[in-house]
Design goal:
Chain lengths: 325, 555
């Protein structure tokens, strides 16, 4: 009897485990391309969460479905089930297992977070704890947790150069980027590949959110503060920057192109842009505001007037993929 | 004063008269009448909030912003969220609790019947206040149900009476009404229990209402204070949260989430109670681990007061704080998981009868399982930094608010319909409703997860074309979900009017409410019951009370 139970449980657990592992592999394909060093760490974590989640969902959900199918009362069967009111061993086990699982998840997440070292806002307290260590890429020291070099995923060059510093200015509803060394301004975010980038995030009006899905990174931008934000792009290509914190009427169009370029292309672009006369950038919010609303249903409510189109060296393409026409 | 004769008629004749519909429109102090008033009022708002969501899903079925003006879209998601939380989930749960708690603990009414009625009548007042802001020249509030400053302070119209002011007033009034309700429920449960109804003989529904209302007492003052400070900033130009004047907008986020995270448990705990009541009845088995389930409700309330910053992981939150609140968030998953295991064990080897209430309850538990798993994922800081403020979060909490809470509410409405109205509902229509709602919910809210993983932000009225596929599916699911309410309405109305008369206990359920007639007489019990057993004695054939005959005796 005992052996039979063990065998049955194993016969169930093995396929569920296999399916869960398979789902964990699939999880990578649900994400955008891995364009930053951080995205690799996060995708591994997500894959792990999907494995655990699938296992639990199939285990518990399967038990429920099994009961629904096999423990039906017959049409004229009005008897009661066995009056089982509890089972201390079982209850202890199913309390300890989740405790163990969430400790595992929290520990792994903590580890990933310290490896990312994205320099989150930290004005409130200045404790000296692992969370506030120097960026792993800027200064290739040892990771405090693992005592190993934390440049996992980032090539050697990333740790050699100092981080590239770029200012991010957000206002309703446009992004503007400034490269202080060359005094270049742009409405496209150009980034060098394989090099640590340090952004200084600022807003001139309300909260905004700096979010590039391909980098898996996000940080709200808070008025009257400059928030440092660090990461390492690792894949050449074109991505989207989205405003992730609701910012009013034209929130949905507050987007920008992100171009990750080889170091040479990046330098060349900076040099060219520095020589260009500033011109007015295309501004989706302003153009929608000035245009007579052509929507089917329009109440004509007043709205905040969009900030004027910024004058920049690199006005960018009129690159919104969706227009509201 | 016209209500006096109407109320007193059933008292005079000992036999309850057939429900006079007029009493439901009067200032009644009968907890059962107030319960129905809450339920019907909140359902009307559920339909209004649902209509708004249909328009939103119609806008989102294409990537372009082509149906409604952007400002109108923004006010729609603001109002949709506000209505669904403050005018559907909260009041419908209060309606259920009003009807059931006095019956379940063997009381003749709530501790403060007048306060109870006043608290109810504030609901239509602030509901109408909120809705009327659509007709202001400045339009309804457009800052989302969080109303984060500085956006909520911007007031482009310059009017003193604007949508945001109306919104804040409505939320503040709702807060006051809820505090009144909470005082009433906590007092009732502590003081009005029948002899023999010890804490560990209370049905789990009562335990969960108690846990939820204790949270309200602790948390609501914070929300109401936050709302009032924001109102002062907006109207009098104070500078609590206004960064232009040196205020701190992050402080508002703390005020808001200190209440609004626990609020999600205020909403879900009574539904946990509903599951715990329904499963034993339709599985013919005692609730597994009754005491542990009871204690885990209280544990959840306490822990839920300590996790609010998980809504601010990507905000201006320092790293140590992110890590601390990740740890507390993980803790809250444990008592929640224990409950799911207990429900599973309750139906294991039972004698299941898949009537409509059971279908809804089990469907809701399956969807809650899914939502709990995505919830733990969201609690993991590095992953949340990716999906925070994307559709992944919207998917997570709709599996809760629709898949779990609203479906659980339907389970409760079907289960107690015979008790509330004295009529049976139509089983076929009930099952049709379940299948439409179950498929609709999954089709509507599952696709939001992949859209969010790809990076689609929430609260947008236009989006990049790569998200279109999942949005089309979600919109179709949304329309199906809208359709699913039709058989429900048809069922409720026609059954109430002409359904088969219900016996006192159509489900062979154990519980004080099932010992009295359907619907129960005014003041519920002829003689206060004397409780002698735990609440879920299925399969044990032991009596629940020692004076069954006397308590329902009719002259
Ligand atoms: C297993 C337990 C759960 C965990 C660990 C959990 C975790 C989370 C986290 C971390 C968020 C924030 C995500 C973000 O905004 O980035 C969230 C959002 C939310 N959760 Fe859960 N959750 C759980 C269960 C629940 C339950 C039981 C409810 C409802 C009763 C609920 C309702 C919500 C709501 C309404 C939001 C979104 C609020 C908003 O952003 O507008 N969750 N959850
Ligand atoms: Cu929360």
């Amino acid at each position: 009897m005992k052996l039979r139970t063990v065998l049955t449980l194993a016969a169930i657990a093995i396929p569920i485990t296999l399916i869960s592992l398979w789902m964990g592999q699939q999880a990578y394909s649900w994400m955008p391309p891995q364009a930053s060093a951080e995205s690799k760490l996060i995708d591994d974590l997500f894959s792990f969460l999907v494995i655990l989640g699938t296992f639990i969902f199939l285990g518990v959900g399967g038990t429920i479905i099994y009961s629904i199918i096999f423990y039906r009362a017959g049409k004229y069967d009005f008897s009661d089930g066995p009056p089982i009111e509890g089972n201390v061993t079982l209850e202890v086990v199913w309390t300890i297992i989740p405790v163990f699982l969430v400790i595992w998840i929290a520990g792994y997440s903590y580890h990933v977070y310290s490896q990312m070292a994205i320099r989150e806002p930290m004005e409130i307290v200045h404790l000296h704890n692992p969370m506030e260590m120097e960026s792993a890429y800027a200064a290739p020291e040892k990771n405090l947790d693992t005592q190993e070099n934390v440049t996992k995923g980032a090539p050697e060059s990333a740790v050699v150069l100092p981080p590239e510093e770029i200012e991010v200015h957000s206002r309703q509803w446009v992004w503007e980027f400034r490269y202080p060394e060359q005094n270049v301004t742009s409405t496209e975010l150009h980034l060098p590949v394989d090099r640590r980038v340090r952004l200084a995030l600022q807003t001139e009006d309300v909260l905004h959110g700096f979010y590039i899905p391909a980098f898996r990174l996000k940080q709200d931008i808070i008025p009257n503060r400059t928030i440092d934000f660090e990461f390492t792009p690792i894949r050449i290509g074109k991505y989207r920057l989205e405003d992730s914190q609701f910012s009013g009427t034209y929130f949905a169009v507050m987007q920008a192109d992100v171009l990750v370029e080889s170091p040479d292309d990046y330098k060349q672009w900076l040099a060219q842009a520095a020589n260009r006369e500033p011109s007015a950038a295309y501004n989706q919010a302003a153009s929608e505001y000035s245009r007579f609303s052509d929507k089917a249903i329009k109440p004509g409510w007043p709205t905040i007037v969009p900030a004027p189109a910024p004058l920049v060296n690199q006005p960018g393409a009129t690159s919104l993929k969706t227009y509201s026409q | 004063m016209t209500n006096i004769p109407i109320e007193s008629i059933p008292v005079l004749g000992k036999n309850p008269l057939p429900p006079a519909w007029r009493k439901y429109f009067s200032f009644s102090t009968d907890h059962k009448v107030i319960g129905v008033q809450y339920l019907v009022t909140s359902f009307v708002f559920f339909l209004i909030g649902g209509l708004l969501s249909m328009v939103m899903r119609a806008e989102l079925i294409t990537p372009e912003s082509d149906l409604v003006d952007r400002s109108l879209y923004n006010s729609m998601f603001t109002m949709h969220g506000t209505i669904m939380i403050f005018l559907w989930i909260f009041p419908s749960l209060l309606g259920l609790a009003n009807f059931l708690v006095p019956l379940m603990i063997g009381a003749r009414d709530m501790a403060f019947p007048r306060l109870n009625a006043v608290a109810f009548w504030m609901v239509p007042v602030f509901g109408i206040l909120l809705m009327s802001s659509f007709f202001l020249p400045s339009g309804a509030s457009q800052s989302g149900w969080w109303a984060y400053p500085p956006v909520s302070l911007q007031n482009p119209s310059g009017d003193l009476i604007n949508g945001q002011v109306m919104w804040l007033l409505a939320v503040a009034i709702s807060g006051v009404a809820s505090i009144m309700g909470a005082v009433n429920f906590v007092t009732t449960i502590f003081k009005m229990r029948a002899p023999g109804m010890t804490f560990f003989r209370m049905p789990i529904f009562v335990w969960t209402v108690l846990s939820a209302q204790l949270i309200q007492l602790v948390g609501l003052p914070a929300l109401t204070a936050g709302a009032v400070m924001l109102l002062l900033d907006l109207t009098l130009g104070t500078s609590f949260f206004n960064p232009e004047k040196g205020g701190n907008p992050l402080l508002y986020q703390h005020f808001f989430w200190f209440y609004s995270h626990p609020a999600v448990y205020v909403m879900v705990l009574p539904i946990f109670g509903v599951f715990s009541e329904i499963l034993p009845v339709y599985a013919r088995k005692p609730l597994f681990g009754y005491r542990v389930v009871a204690i885990s409700s209280i544990t959840i309330s306490v822990v839920s007061l300590l996790v609010w910053v998980h809504h601010m992981f990507a905000s201006g939150t320092p790293g140590w704080m992110r890590m601390f609140f990740m740890a507390t968030t993980m803790c809250v998953a444990v008592p929640t998981g224990v409950k799911i295991f207990a429900w599973t064990a309750t139906i294991w080897r039972g004698k299941l009868r898949m009537d409509t209430p059971m279908l809804f309850a089990l469907g809701a538990i399956l969807m809650f399982l899914f939502a709990g798993i995505t919830g733990v994922m969201l609690g993991s800081v590095p992953f949340d930094i990716h999906v925070n403020n994307t559709y992944f979060v919207v998917g997570h909490f709709h599996y809760i608010v629709y898949g779990t809470i609203t479906m659980g509410m339907f389970a409760a409405l079907y289960h107690w319909f015979p008790k509330i109205t004295g009529r049976m509902y139509y089983e076929g229509l009930g099952k049709l409703h379940f299948w439409l709602a179950f498929i609709g919910t999954n089709l509507n809210f599952f696709p939001m997860h992949p859209a969010g993983l790809m990076g689609m932000p929430r609260r947008v009225s236009s989006y990049d074309p790569e998200y279109a596929f999942w949005n089309v599916l979600a919109s179709l699911g949304g329309f199906l979900l809208g359709m699913s309410t039709l058989p429900f309405i048809l069922n409720m109305v026609s059954s109430w009017v002409q359904g088969k008369k219900a016996p006192a206990n159509p489900w062979r359920a154990i519980g004080l409410e099932w010992l009295v007639s359907s619907p129960p007489p005014v003041e519920n019990f002829e003689e206060i019951p004397v409780v002698i057993a735990e609440p879920y004695g299925y399969g044990k054939s032991e009596p629940l009370v020692s004076n069954a005959a006397a308590m329902t005796q009719e002259a």
